[in-house]
UniProtKB/TrEMBL annotation:
Signal peptide: 1-29
The UniProt record lists the keyword Zinc-finger: yes
InterPro entries attached to this UniProt entry: P-loop_NTPase, SBNO_a/b_dom, SBNO_Helicase_C_dom, SNO, SNO_AAA, Zinc_finger_PHD-type_CS, Znf_FYVE_PHD, Znf_PHD
GO cellular component annotations of the record: nucleus
Name the record gives this protein: PHD-type domain-containing protein
Domain PHD-type: 691-741
SUPFAM superfamilies recorded: FYVE/PHD zinc finger, P-loop containing nucleoside triphosphate hydrolases
């Protein structure tokens, strides 16, 4: 029999669950018996782009036929030897094809077809043996009968050695048992566990009942394909709605409105902070002066209120100020300091990232009227007691940097202890960690070490348990691991569910993005956190792809070939060393680190022409420009200046200097013959530890060389011999002790030195040729110097970086000169502030910033500044972390601005460059989840996030496909469907490429000249287990490949990645964070019910029951159709297959610009589907309805019936709890405080049958009439009772514990 499924990029291929894996060993372990009993029961192949499953009778007589379940769960019955059963590729009916017939036509749909080769020959496959387990071969995909308990065997078809993965096997058997429990009523086919009889009759509509009863006892029903389709759509979760809502304080009415529009994520806005109880002393003063806005005063109230509470360990509770860049955190801190000053707390510590920000602190304090509060810069003070008579700092604000916090004097006095002494043991003043993301690496990833800064931040909090701690940063927790220093939030430790931070971290990482998003909401609910951001209304974001220009393309190609050749040269040089070799690991670490740095520099240089064009265009439009980058190239520039002098012919090429340094300092050379001493002489073998005395003069002079007889070990000085033995002596040496003639050591020494010299000179010559090649390469200049030069030089461009000097064009116009950035009037410490002022005053209209200016510096179109031109922010190079990216974006988008900026993010069209975007995108997603309660809060770079769990799976799949160890999940780029020759050619090119960058190792048949694999060889070599999932390494190394193969390889990887994401969505396993539930009407059904109260905070957990109507009326559908009438294939479609006498309808509208064609799908019962449908899938399953009356009648019928009935019909085994395709349904959402009950809910959901119901989903809804926003966990209808029971048990246990 035969069944097939479409294999296409849009519909996705049907994949076997790989329970078997290839065994690398080519021999069995000694003493292990190879068991038998494995036979092929199903043959698998490809036929015209479709995956075919074939089984036929034949083979040895002792094998009996049987029943099996194949593609899509369709049961297949072994046919009689005279015929076979085939599933039609068109209407999918089952046909009996007599023996000997190769070409046939379906009697129903009239589709001409050809019997695949798998069914033309006898003996290929056999029936299922129901006493064994059926598993697919990991190599040829043939389904095998495997005896229980057999773990290692050889596939009878392809002869590949296999082993059973017991973990996957257990999961597979568990899923089969769940399908048996479901039955057909819920749209899932039963699993047949007992064999049928050969020759059983079968009609063209389904399977006979004798086959289907078996051990499961179910009768077979026809599958409703539309129900499965809709179930997949609903499992893919909701849609993404508006992310932000306008913000204003909900429970306070003091202060003036903020000068700029402020927004909050819709998720955070759905929860309310506690009632304010703190009496603000500075409220009246601020209302009169208007120095602080209403939201800044709200922050001071909640921070002060939080500081009145103590945690379970008696330390004072802390507060997290997470407002976005530019909202005005600095002035809020100043207001908080002034409030505490009024309360008599006249000492405060203010930590930040740069000492020059002290001037901003002074300005903010003056703005709020806190002129009496002095600001003392700690870096200007000695290490003595600060309150002593000599220093005289009795009160005020000590302003220090995180670097100062870990500093110490030459005598061992530390700044930290100095601060603790100044504050005193009972210090209850403010301890402000401004830009606190600086301390984020307190808890590093596996293999890393905690930073001294993170440890010091935690230590000073421990030494000041009563201090009023404020964590302040727009990027304070880019991922949960980085929250380790926030000990005063009370999220872990005594009195919580998490005894230490590691358990808190483990819980968040286990439960995914949804848990991260709930952390932010819980913190706001408890009054320990606020997070608002400037509205990006008016700001423009665009990601511009910059193709490589011809000149840069040639440079890049030459560089790729050179690095490949250099790697071969280094391997040859290492192999040529006969004496003690240097550490190869260290050499290759340096090689790959410089490789990454080199090509990152090349990518940045490739974007310089585009950045300059954008800057000049902006200047012509009366705008000003801010260009952001990370690498200044200072180290390479200073090396070149030290080497060649301060006057150079041209700007320094960073890539060239990097290569020169790598080869000059680390090329492995043999031992220098000049250094060959006595330890290299064949006859001089004495140990340095031995006490030697000359046999002639009896002197023990260790400074003189000894000669030792190889026979009697007698030692003498060469000068004591008669005649004395010198370097040029040709006479033989006779031992004075035994009289024996020893070897002619002088001849041997000269021969030895000659060999060493020749080898050394040859290696030096090869090294010299490599250096000459590097000098001859055409490589780009340092981008920073290049940009400044092309945009008018330092007189027209303000530079805010951390470098000390720069190269400028000589006044003569020829050559460049190195000069210091500071001048007589401006110190190096103040140069960035001076350059900033030049820009803000309109004396310079272009600014270039690096990380040194990415925290606390304001470059927006400030209404108070002379330069109010609109900013065009060009990101030439994204920083490696989202924290730094957000800081850089926030330099030009801040409060009190005359206009919002334009952001232009530049990327080359090189696939490997996405390595850097990938890292930032990953951080931006988790950063938005933690600090803003919504992972979509930041600028969207999620399309570039490949460094994820799905990225790692995609990489492993990609590698296995390239090594031809597994079938590719998708068709490779540039390979027509079914063209195996093209696919093999692509795989061969990719293997060559991966070999040149060190991903494939130990390959045979390698061309020693260029390191590539000979085309005639089969796949060889290996990919290390550690590399299989290392996306970072893959993208790093991919940068060093020629652009063409780099892009094709990356496209293949991304296609696999997208396919895995689609599969995860279909299986309900994709963690999409907060999703919106959309419906035409959403209303609360009764009052919310409190189902749990936290014993610690008293915050409630509430169950909301909502009635939703997701339907789309005929009038609305018809209106949509009329609005898109220009599409030829747009219209109402009817399903080709009937189910229970009914067909189903949908509206398909082509998405403009899609290639291949893709359609938005609307259904009567559920409105717009979350996924698009390809034109191929649409035509195969649906027929366009030409009659308007017929379309209206069918649509209306679907709409009406779906009000109280699911798609499985009135006899659905799930009953009223089934929501598949139901238009009107109840939705249960658990809101309020979630983290304390998360584990209880998770346990209840784990017992659900549907995979999508097992997953914790954080959802957001807004009621239609009242506009009330609700965010919480979506509880499936079938799980409500179990969840409520679990919460009740948890509440009772909590009460018992508190009483006990």
């Amino acid at each position: 029999m035969l069944a097939w499924r479409n294999f296409s990029s849009d519909g996705g291929a049907f994949h076997f669950l790989l329970l078997l894996f290839l065994v690398k060993e080519r021999c069995w372990p000694e003493g292990e018996k190879r068991e038998s009993g494995v036979c092929v029961c199903v043959g698998v192949g490809l036929f015209r782009g479709r995956v075919c499953f074939a089984s036929s009778e034949g083979g040895r007589e002792e094998e009996e036929g049987g029943a099996m379940v194949q593609a899509g769960g369709a049961p297949v019955v072994a046919s009689a030897p005279t015929a076979c059963q085939v599933q039609c590729a068109g209407c999918r009916r089952i046909l009996n094809v007599p023996s000997g017939i190769l070409n046939f036509q379906c009697p129903k749909c009239k589709l001409p077809q050809v019997l695949p080769p798998q069914l033309r020959s006898q003996g290929l496959a056999r029936g299922i043996d129901n006493t064994k387990i059926q598993l697919p071969c990991a190599n040829c995909r043939a389904v095998l009968n495997v005896p229980p308990g057999l773990t290692r065997f050889v596939c009878p078809q392809c002869r590949v050695e296999l082993a059973v993965d017991p973990v996957k096997l257990a999961a597979y058997m568990s899923s089969l048992s769940q399908l048996n429990a479901l039955g057909n009523g819920h749209g899932a086919p039963p699993t047949v566990s007992a064999g049928g009889l050969p020759g059983d009759a079968m009609d063209d509509t389904g399977w006979n009942s004798k086959q289907l009863h078996g051990a499961s006892g179910f009768s077979m029903e026809e599958i409703n394909e539309v129900a499965l389709e809709v179930e997949q759509e609903e499992d893919e979760a909701g849609t993404i709605g508006d992310t932000f809502t306008d913000y204003k304080p909900s429970k306070l009415s003091i202060g003036q409105p903020h000068p700029d529009p402020i927004v909050e994520t819709a998720s955070l806005s759905a929860v309310q902070p506690p009632e304010p109880t703190y009496d603000l002393l500075i409220a009246e003063e601020m209302e009169k002066s208007g120095a602080l806005s209403c939201l800044q005063l709200e922050t001071i109230v909640y921070a002060s209120q939080r500081h009145m509470q103590h945690l379970a360990d008696n330390s004072r509770a802390g507060f997290f100020l997470g407002d976005g860049a530019g909202v005005g955190k600095g002035r809020t801190i100043a207001g908080l300091i002034w409030e505490n000053w009024k309360r008599g707390r006249t000492k405060a510590l203010w930590l930040s990232v740069g000492s020059d920000l002290k001037f901003d602190a002074r300005r903010d304090l003056d703005d709020v009227g806190a002129m009496p509060v002095e600001v003392h810069a700690l870096n200007k003070l000695p290490y003595a007691k600060l309150d002593s008579k000599t220093v005289g700092v009795k009160e005020g604000v000590l302003f220090l940097t995180y670097s100062s916090l870990i500093a110490s004097s030459e005598k061992g006095r530390s700044r930290l202890n100095q601060l603790v002494q100044w504050c005193g043991p009972d210090f209850d003043g403010l301890l402000v960690f401004d830009e606190c993301h600086k301390a984020k690496n307190l808890v590093p990833e596996a293999g890393g070490q905690a930073t001294r800064t993170g440890e010091a931040v935690l230590e000073i909090q421990n030494k000041m348990p009563d201090a009023r701690v404020v964590y302040c940063s727009a990027t304070g927790a880019s991922e949960p691991r980085n929250m380790g220093y926030m000990a005063r939030l009370g999220l872990w430790g005594s009195g919580t569910d998490f005894p230490q931070f590691s358990s808190f971290l483990g819980a968040l990482e286990k439960r995914g993005v949804g848990a991260l998003e709930l952390v932010a909401m819980d913190m706001k609910t408890r009054g320990m956190y606020v997070c608002r951001t400037l509205s990006f209304k008016g700001a423009d974001f665009s990601i511009d792809e910059v193709p490589l220009e011809n000149r840069m393309q040639n440079m890049y190609l030459q560089a790729c070939f050179f690095w490949s050749s250099l790697r071969v040269e280094l391997m040859a040089a290492l192999d040529a060393l006969t004496e003690k070799k240097p550490s190869q690991n260290q050499l290759w670490r340096l090689y790959w680190a410089n490789h990454q740095r080199f090509f990152r520099h090349m990518c940045m240089s490739a974007k310089v022409p585009a950045a300059v064009r954008l800057a000049k265009q902006a200047l012509e439009e009366e705008k000003c420009v801010v260009i952001g980058l990370q690498s200044t190239g200072e180290a390479r520039t200073e090396e070149a200046v030290n080497k060649y002098g301060v006057e150079l012919d041209d700007f320094v090429s960073g890539p060239r200097e990097l290569l020169l340094k790598l080869v000059e300092e680390h090329y492995p050379l043999p031992q220098d013959p000049k250094l060959v001493g006595a330890e290299s002489d064949p006859d001089s073998t004495m140990s340095e530890e031995e006490i030697r005395a000359c046999h002639i003069c009896m002197a023990e002079d260790a400074s003189q060389q000894f000669l030792e007889c190889t026979s009697c070990r007698t030692a003498v000085h060469p000068a004591c011999l008669s005649p004395p033995l010198t370097e040029n002596s040709d006479c033989d040496w006779y031992c004075v002790g035994c009289g024996q003639k020893t070897c002619d050591f002088q001849v041997e020494k000269r021969r030895f030195v000659s060999v060493v010299s020749a080898r050394y000179e040859e290696a030096k010559s090869r090294k010299s040729k490599i250096l000459d090649t590097i000098r001859s390469l055409e490589l780009p200049n340092n981008p920073l110097d290049d940009i400044i030069d092309q945009l008018g030089g330092p007189d027209r461009v303000a530079e805010m970086t951390g470098r000390r000097g720069m190269l400028v064009r000589a006044k003569s116009g020829t050559g460049v000169v190195y000069q210091a950035r500071n001048t007589k009037d401006v110190t190096l410490e103040m140069i960035n502030m001076h350059e900033k002022q030049q820009f803000m005053d309109g004396k310079k209209f272009v600014a270039v910033i690096s990380e040194a200016a990415s925290a606390g510096v304001s470059l927006q179109a400030d209404r108070r500044a002379l330069n109010q031109r609109r900013r065009v922010h060009v990101t030439l190079e994204l920083p490696w972390s989202a924290d730094r990216a957000i800081q850089q974006f926030g330099r030009t988008h801040r409060s009190n601005q005359a206009s919002a900026p334009q952001y232009r993010l530049l990327f080359t069209n090189l696939g490997g460059e996405r390595r850097f975007a990938s890292i930032v995108a990953k951080r931006l997603e988790t950063l938005g989840a933690l600090t803003q309660g919504d992972r979509r809060a930041g600028p969207s770079l999620s399309a570039f996030n490949y460094d994820s769990v799905y990225g790692k799976k995609a990489l492993a799949s990609t590698y296995k496909s390239l090594m031809e160890q597994a079938e590719p999940l998708v068709i490779p780029p540039g390979c027509p469907s079914g063209d195996s020759a093209k696919i093999k050619e692509f795989f061969h090119l990719c293997r060559q490429a991966l070999l040149t960058v060190g991903i494939i190792r130990d390959a045979v048949g390698v061309n020693q000249n260029n390191g590539t694999i000979k085309s005639s060889t089969r796949p060889s070599g290996r990919i290390a287990e550690a590399d299989l999932h290392d996306v970072g390494r893959f993208l790093n190394r991919a940068l060093g490949l020629p652009p063409d193969i780099q892009n094709r390889l990356f496209e293949f990887f991304v296609s696999v990645f997208d396919e895995l994401i689609r599969d995860a969505r279909k299986e309900g396993q994709f963690d999409s964070g907060i999703v919106d539930i959309k419906a035409s009407t959403i209303e609360l059904n009764g009052s919310p019910k409190t189902v749990h109260v936290d014993n610690i905070s008293g915050a409630p957990t509430t169950l909301f029951v909502l009635e939703t109507d997701r339907g789309l009326t005929w009038e609305a559908a018809n209106k949509l159709h009329e609005d898109h009438a220009d599409g030829v294939d747009n219209g109402i479609y009817r399903s080709k297959r009937e189910w229970l006498g009914r067909t189903h309808y949908l509206l398909a509208l082509e998405r403009s610009g899609s290639s291949p064609k893709a359609f938005r799908v609307f259904r009567p019962a559920s409105g717009e589907a979350p996924r698009e449908m390809s034109f191929t899938e649409l035509r195969s399953k649906y027929t366009k309805v030409s009659s308007s009356d017929q379309a209206k009648a069918g649509w209306t019928e679907d709409f009406t019936i779906s009000a109280d009935q699911c798609l499985h019909g009135p006899k659905c085994k799930m009953g009223s709890s089934c929501t598949i395709g139901r238009r009107v349904q109840q939705v249960h959402i658990l809101g309020g405080l979630i983290l304390p009950v998360w584990g209880t809910v998770e346990k209840a959901l784990s017992k659900q049958v549907r995979k999508s119901h097992k997953r914790l989903r954080v959802v957001r809804v807004e009621t239609t009439t009242e506009g009330r926003r609700i965010v919480g966990l979506h509880i499936p209808n079938t799980a409500v009772d179990a969840v409520l029971t679990g919460l009740n048990d948890l509440q009772v246990k909590g009460l018992e514990d508190s009483i006990g």
